[in-house]
Amino acid sequence: CGESLGGQQEKIIPNKIEEDKTFIKEHFISEAPKNRYCSEFIIKESQKQENDLKELLRKWGDSLVIAGNKKQLKIHIHTNHPESILALLENWGTIIYQKVDDMQLQYEISQNRKSSIAIVTDSVADLSADFILENQIFVLPLNISVGEQNFLDKLTINPQIFEEKYNKNLKMTTSQPSIQSVDSLFSFLEGKYDHIIVISVSSQLSGTYQLIKQRIREKKVTENQVHLIDSKLNSVAQGLLVKQAVKIISEEKPIEAILNEIENIIDRVFIYVAVADLSPMINSGRIPKFLGEVAQKISMHPIISLDKRGNGKLIGGSFSQARSMDKILKKLFCCQKKGKLK
């Protein structure tokens, strides 16, 4: 929390912010924070004055500091709801920077590190905020663009906000975590753990795996310390793999045995999705536009899975989502009878 912005970001902050030590010193968390997330935003051409913003934001947390001028303001606040802060700010100006740190997780690690092995994953993995904190998981947020606004996945956007934006037919895209977020996380972990296991979303679905691999090489981190694993999975399946990794690490096995078990589990994890609306997949290019539109016209509800390399594949479909779900259940019952489910 409270790290100074690097490179180009520093140049766009007014002098008033640069002189304010609250923004540029590193926070050392000596007691449990009242709010979980340290959040920072820079808003350009705000329609609200500094004092008005303070009154509107004060109820959302503590350690609120706002500084800047008419052209842009920087907001620093400790809050449990960074998504609500962004939702308010985007109504009053253009948000050109956002950063959210999990202070509660940092505090828990400083007081009671549960393992000498850290687990890092990305926000594609379906994990609850409580599980992440309880098991000290580090999550790199993907970037989500909705219309002209950017969000940090699962930090400054939640399912309710996503649905509201989606219903407005705004263009939505996702992109890999920022270089800054990857580098900052590795800097934080440096010296705190003997080993770091990174479990990324399928490299066939996102550039996240390649980005992390490149940053590990750029920072000259030894392969004996950081172990990058392509999950070849996504969503719930990726989250399940992370949960299994937590369990294996808790058994205090040698690192080689842990890595081998995780790799073996990847081959046994699968995911079936009964797609209700093809529009997002068509817009993102994951389904060819022509085929997607044909499927929509005949009210086809496809069943999507992942192949062994982590590519999306079509494994069936029906003319209603309920029937697609029935087909998925039949596949699961079949796997259960053959003893393939654990």
What features would you highlight for this structure?
342 residues, alpha+beta, Alpha-Beta Plaits, 3 domains, four-stranded antiparallel β-sheet, four-stranded parallel β-sheet, 24% strand, disordered N terminus, FakA-like_C, DegV
Question: How does this structure look, described?
Answer:
The chain is of the alpha+beta class. The chain folds into three domains: 1-112, Alpha-Beta Plaits, CATH 3.30.70; 113-142 and 177-269, Rossmann fold; 273-337, no CATH class. The protein is 39% helix and 24% strand. The strands form four sheets. It has a four-stranded antiparallel beta sheet. Strand 5 (117-122), helix 7 (129-134) and strand 6 form a beta-alpha-beta unit.
Order of helices and strands: HHHEHEEHEHEHEEEHEHEHEHHEHHEEH
Which structural class best describes the helix and strand composition? alpha+beta
Number of spatially distinct domains: 3
Largest sheet report = 4 strands, antiparallel
Number of helices: 15
The CATH homologous superfamily of the largest domain: Dihydroxyacetone kinase, domain 1
The percent range for helix content is: 25-40%
Instruction: Give the overall silhouette.
Output: globular
* Tally of strands: 14
The CATH architecture term of the largest domain is 3-Layer(aba) Sandwich
